[in-house]
Structures are given as C-alpha cells and as structure tokens.
Amino acid sequence: MAVIATNWWAAKQAAAALPVTWAEGAGAKLSNEAIFTDFAAHLELDDNALFVLTGQRLRSLPLRPG
C-alpha cells in the first residue's frame, strides 16, 4: 500500500480509510518452534553436516546430493 499526501496526518487518515486484505500464503502456519524443531532434526543427520569443529579449526565437509 502506498499513500501520497501533503502531510503526515492526511497520509494517516488516507491509509486508515483503505481496505486491506492480507494474503498470508504458504508460510502463514509456520512457527518459530516448528522451524527450530526441523533444524534440530536435521542436525542429527550425518550426511547433512556443513561444518565440523575439530580442536581450534573449522573444516568444511563435502556435501552429497540427496
């Protein structure tokens, strides 16, 4: 939505008068809890590891197409 006005009050009044219908889309039902649960589940999979911390070094692991 965009409103062009000569001052803040006119813009606020015009924006409030516009009917707005939100399309929530496919991600509307996602929650932080669901996302972090999914992340945690994928951390347990050996073939999905991106990095391994070994001592003071961080080395990357090759990724295999799945």
UniProtKB/TrEMBL annotation:
List the protein's name.
Uncharacterized protein
Q: What is the lineage of its organism?
A: Bacteria, Pseudomonadati, Pseudomonadota, Betaproteobacteria, Burkholderiales
- UniProt organism field: Massilia psychrophila
